[in-house]
Amino acid sequence: MKILYISISGNTRSFVQRLKTYAFDKYNVPIEVKEIHENSVFEDETAPFFTFVPTYLDGGNGVDNGDTEILTETMREYLEYHGNYRYCLGVVGSGNKNFNHQYCLTAKQYAQKFDFPFLADYELRGTQEDLERVYTIMKQTISE
Q1: How far apart are CA 8 and CA 85, in angstroms?
Q2: Percent of the chain scored above 70 by pLDDT?
Q3: Residue 45: phi, psi to the nearest 5?
Q4: What's the rounded Cα separation, in Å, for the pair 85 and 96?
Q5: What is the rounded CA–CA span in Å between residue 24 and residue 57?
Q6: Statement: residue 51 has pLDDT above 80
Q7: What is the full DSSP assignment across 72-127?
Q8: Cα(109)–Cα(97) distance, integer angstroms
């Protein structure tokens, strides 16, 4: 199992690292993780992976008057690079539910743009129940 993620505040990094530990400790399943950031060297992906992305937007409300993705553009560019998105099995989004319609909007936009499924969401750093739920969804997605 492989996860590509971007983390701005550390919440996504924390969740992915805890998910990696959970999968190995409970199921003996190793998860390879790769953090994408503005200094990343873009590479061609050749195997399936999941994408984890937080939501950072500027302007608009994301529903009827637009929005602009900020801070996470490097992940979008990485997915676009040589068609890496073709290997993505789905996206998991995070955010703050206080932002209503913008909650996980970046992940939902990626799913629409790249035509892969929006698999799950969690708020901020996520809970233990979120870890278990997201892991189950990932395992089911691989089994399909």
Answers
A1: 21
A2: 88
A3: -80, 140
A4: 25
A5: 34
A6: yes
A7: -HHHHHHHHGGGGGGGEEEEEEEE-GGGGGGTTHHHHHHHHHHT--EEEEEETT--
A8: 17
- What CA–CA distance (Å, rounded) separates 35 from 5? 5
Q: For the chain, give the mean pLDDT.
A: 89
| pLDDT, mean of residues 26-39 | 95
Over 60: is that where the pLDDT of 62 sits? no
Contacts of 68 (CB under 8 A, 6+ apart): 57, 58, 59, 60
Beta-bridge partner residues of 37: none
**CA-wise closest residue to 110 among 132, 135, 82, 80:** 80
Q: How far apart are CA 26 and CA 112, in angstroms?
A: 33
Distance CA 89, CA 74 (A): 19
| Radius of gyration of the chain, Cα coordinates, nearest whole angstrom | 14
Question: pLDDT for 88-123, tens place per residue?
Answer: 999 999 988 777 667 788 899 899 999 999 999 999
* Type of residue at 116: F
